[in-house]
């Protein structure tokens, strides 16, 4: 029993200590962000490796998710003779929920884990320490550009995911199952609200981008500099990002679409 | 610098008789383990000073304390008359521009070429034109014999080459001192010879102060002007290479001769062997 209490206390204390380090780290990043805009080259390089290189996985997943939505939606809606409303069903599911959430989960797996591994290995091979000794602040030179790149890429990737998904739904619904082309688009146009649906979806993905970038960079920066440490940190990035995304999604959905 | 010191410096050449780094009564611990326990040492300007000791005595930690990357529990570290741990961040960074450090792994940035790695401190800290930076980088690379390797990536370099590139990077800003962290470890005889020669030449040609942290006895004894031997968080012996070689401390003798048993036992502390074997 004493042992259990001891462990509970230890875990609680170390979690709070980590949260403190994480918050301090975030403040350091945010205060360094301004200087990144003065050196756009660093940012562009990271936008490429974090954002552009995630294009493929986002596009393909978006297409398949859209196609599955088209298929499932059609089967259910046709039971009620409402298959003409497939467009709004696909678009609303994507723009409100699946777009931001699934693309964020994919982004955490694809880009977040890569960021953690990269920063963790830089720490393990003393590159961060080496920069500090050269009087170059690694937060400004290494961390902040990656943070901004993640923050900027996420909403764009999420928008891409939703758009491709809508096309995927169209491909199956209109192309294969014979829903009327005009009503697919018209229902979507009539049913989706720019403010309520699209802007809220974008806000969600901005929040997710912020969280994923923070978590993955902090896990890399805070890693124990051994191969095992980096491997654990990478795992933690994916797991913690997934929990954070889903938790935040619930809160944001409740705030945006509910009457709470 | 006071007037008297300037006169002294002029009379004695570069003020070689003054200390560049002074460590007083320094204690540092990691968790429950005390790494340094009230250690004091001085590093003279313009000389090669070696800090030796077995693995795990905190030699690298000492360099990090000098560079202000770690904070001591007590005691002070003064570099060029600045107390490192009382400096503001901006001042510490200004001081670090004048301190080069060569990490054991080289610590080259893996996404930049050899040229860009050496150019990095120049690009970050000076407003020199690109052509000027190019000339400076080529000069530094020529000094370490790797001008022809400028377009290679760090993963294409051998361990010895990586360390030489890191050396070129460390001298890019013409620092007043360089700290070498285990420069000889894991090098083949040729690379080793090159590094020993480079460290010596750079020290003399550029008027640097060198601090070498190492446990390679032979190379260090040939190169150093003064040696500190650390053990268990204390200075176990100090002096010129001759004095260290002739030291009457049993511990220092065991260390420089590499005897397997002596004051440092071969066996990690354990209970009685026989008892341990038959106790089931």
Q: What descriptive keywords fit this protein?
A:
heterodimer, A: 260 residues, mainly alpha, 0% strand, B: 280 residues, alpha/beta, 6-stranded mixed β-sheet, 4-stranded antiparallel β-sheet, 11 helices, 38% helix, 23% strand, globular
Brief summary of the model shown:
By secondary structure, chain A is mainly alpha-helical.
Strand order, sheet with most strands of chain B: 6-7-8-3-9-10
Query: Percentage of helical residues of chain B?
Result: 25-40%
Number of helices of chain A: 9
Shape verdict of chain A: elongated
Strand content range of chain B:
15-25%
Number of helices of chain B: 11
What is the element string of chain B, with H for helices and E for strands? HEEEHEEHEHHHEHEHEEHHH
Describe this structure in words.
The complex is a heterodimer of chains A (about 260) and B (about 280). The mean pLDDT of chain A is about 90. Chain A is mostly helical. Chain A has helices at about 1-35, 40-50, 55-80, 85-125, 125-135, 140-175, 180-190, 195-220, 225-255. Chain A has one domain (about 50-255). Chain B is an alpha/beta fold. Chain B has eleven helices and ten strands. In chain B, strands 6-7-8-3-9-10 form a six-stranded mixed sheet, with helices on both faces. Chain B is globular and about 70 Å long. Chain B starts with a helix and ends with a helix. The interface between A and B is medium-sized, with 14 and 23 residues.
């Amino acid at each position: 029993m004493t042992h259990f209490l001891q462990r509970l206390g230890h875990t609680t204390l170390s979690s709070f200590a980590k949260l403190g380090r994480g918050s301090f780290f975030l403040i350091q990043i945010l205060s360094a962000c301004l200087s990144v805009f003065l050196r756009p080259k660093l940012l562009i390089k990271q936008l490429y490796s974090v954002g552009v290189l995630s294009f493929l996985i986002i596009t393909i997943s978006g297409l398949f998710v859209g196609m599955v939505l088209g298929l499932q939606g059609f089967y259910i809606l046709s039971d009620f003779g409402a298959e003409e409303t497939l467009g709004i069903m696909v678009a609303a599911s994507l723009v409100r929920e699946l777009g931001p959430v699934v693309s964020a989960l994919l982004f955490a797996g694809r880009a977040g884990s890569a960021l953690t591994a990269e920063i963790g290995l830089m720490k393990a091979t003393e590159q961060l320490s080496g920069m500090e000794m050269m009087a170059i602040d690694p937060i400004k030179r290494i961390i902040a550009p990656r943070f901004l790149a993640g923050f900027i890429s996420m909403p764009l990737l999420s928008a891409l995911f939703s758009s491709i998904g809508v096309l995927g739904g169209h491909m199956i619904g209109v192309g294969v199952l014979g829903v009327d082309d005009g009503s697919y688009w018209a229902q979507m146009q009539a049913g989706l609200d720019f403010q309520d649906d699209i802007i809220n979806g974008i806000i969600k993905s901005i929040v997710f981008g912020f969280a994923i970038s923070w978590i993955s960079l902090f896990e890399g920066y805070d890693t124990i500099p051994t191969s095992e440490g980096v491997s654990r940190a990478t795992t933690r990035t994916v797991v913690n990002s997934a929990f954070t995304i889903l938790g935040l999604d619930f809160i944001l959905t409740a705030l945006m679409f509910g009457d709470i | 610098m006071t007037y008297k010191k300037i006169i002294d410096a002029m009379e004695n050449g570069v003020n070689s008789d003054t200390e560049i780094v002074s460590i007083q009564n320094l204690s540092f611990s990691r968790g429950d383990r005390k790494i340094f326990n009230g250690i004091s040492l001085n590093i003279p300007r313009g000389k090669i000073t070696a800090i030796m000791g077995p693995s795990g005595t905190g030699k690298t930690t000492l360099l990090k304390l000098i560079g202000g990357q770690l904070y001591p529990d007590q005691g002070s570290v003064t570099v060029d008359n600045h107390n490192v741990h009382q400096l503001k961040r901006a001042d510490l960074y200004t001081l670090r521009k004048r301190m080069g450090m060569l990490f054991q792994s080289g610590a080259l940035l893996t996404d930049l070429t050899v040229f860009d790695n050496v150019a990095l401190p120049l690009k970050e800290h000076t407003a020199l034109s690109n052509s000027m930076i190019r000339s400076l980088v080529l000069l530094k690379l020529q000094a370490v014999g790797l001008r022809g390797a400028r377009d290679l990536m760090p993963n294409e370099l051998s361990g010895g080459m990586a360390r030489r590139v890191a050396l070129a990077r460390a001298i890019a800003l013409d620092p007043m001192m360089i700290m070498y962290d285990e420069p000889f470890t894991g090098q083949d005889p040729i690379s080793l010879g090159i590094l020993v020669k480079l460290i010596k030449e750079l020290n003399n040609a550029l008027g640097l102060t060198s601090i070498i942290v190492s446990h390679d006895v032979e190379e260090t004894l040939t190169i150093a002007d003064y040696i500190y031997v650390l053990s268990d968080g204390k200075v176990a012996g100090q002096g010129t290479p001759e004095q260290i070689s002739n030291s009457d401390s049993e511990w220092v003798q065991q260390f420089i001769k590499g005897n397997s048993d002596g004051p440092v036992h071969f066996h990690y502390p354990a209970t009685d062997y026989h008892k341990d074997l038959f106790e089931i």
